[in-house]
Amino acid sequence: MDNVLDKNFKLISDKVKNALAEQGVEEQKVSNDNENEKVALFTGESIAYSIVYYFDKKHILMRSCAMTDEGPDNEWRTLATWMFDPETDGTKEAESIANDFVEAVSGTVAIKRLKTTKSKRKKNDDEGNADPIFLAKRFVSLFPELKEEIKLEDEYYYPFRGVTFSKEHIVPKLCNYVKTASKPELEKLGQLLSTQYSNGDVDTRSIITIVLLNSIDESEWDNVNEYLSEDLQKAWKGARKFKGKKVKPEKVKKKKKTMVQRLSEAQK
User: DSSP of 98-153, one letter per residue?
Assistant: First the structure.
């Protein structure tokens, strides 16, 4: 299994390395005494990225932090998290992870992240950084058709309408999935939700408990709950009192103009 992991970890890190090289960010040799982690580190003048695989949790994540004169400041922000089990996953899954990681560090996305990171207040230690759009992207591994739906949502609305998108696009798929899922499939779902709950910001955690988990038929609750982390089990138990109640809707978001509309206006 180590060979499978090593091969696919290199596939992912090489693709990220090539994407970051265009930004002047280079891979560094690292020594890691933690036997539970496999790490790749990339540093530039003002930013550092790392890819970390956790053997016990069987998930791999992409992180970033600021650079100082002494090196990375180690105030890592999680950009994306995926599950990867060497016993069941292979090149196909690694390619998907690599593409998502490259998207997270490339072009305008990276520039926007640098700007917003400076302006945001520092979050509490118990609050993660993963936002609703990252949560939605994690579900692409279960529901590939979400990829195009996320793209359209992100094109027409800003900011990403996490609650609305989850209700309209993820909930129906999730409910059908749970009804027919095998135990390994339910375990995969439980790991996905638990990981994103642990890494998620306040909005993401609320979507997971109040919107997604509460949408599942009560007859399936025990089957799903069995595979959730202890923290998420407790949070979901508290969120069940909101089931069936109307949650305050999101504020109307300004609709983005399409590229055709912007070009048309520019030519007037």
Answer: HHHHHHHHSHHHHHHHHHHHHHSPPPPTT---B-HHHHHHHGGGT-TTHHHHHHHH
d(CA 217, CA 225): 12
**E strand or H helix at 183:** helix 183-199
Residue that has been written with the tokens 């009804």 in this structure: 179
In the three-class reduction of DSSP (H, G, I as helix; E, B as strand; rest coil), residue 185 is classed as: helix
Q: What is the pLDDT of residue 23?
A: 81
Q: What is the pLDDT of residues 147-167, one digit of tens each?
A: 999 988 887 877 888 999 999
Q: Which residues contact 60 (CB under 8 A, 6 or more apart)?
A: 9, 12, 51, 52, 53, 54, 81, 82, 83, 84, 97
The tokens describing 83, both together, are 């599950």
User: Per residue in 178-228, pLDDT tens?
Assistant: 999 999 999 999 999 998 998 888 899 999 999 999 999 999 999 999 999
E-strand ranges in the chain read: 26-28, 37-43, 47-54, 59-68, 71-72, 77-83, 157-158, 254-255
